[in-house]
Amino acid sequence: MLFLARRLILIPDSVDPEPIEANYENGVLHLLLKKRPEVMPKKITINAK
Length: 49
Hints:
rod-shaped
């Protein structure tokens, strides 16, 4: 017997889509999701006269 299943998983924007890894073993799907590196805002010094 063959059963087909489909599941949609929404990935948040904080996850980097390039290095996603998936492994299916013994009926269990394992996903490895890595977060994007946090981009810190650049601090700019403004001198006023």
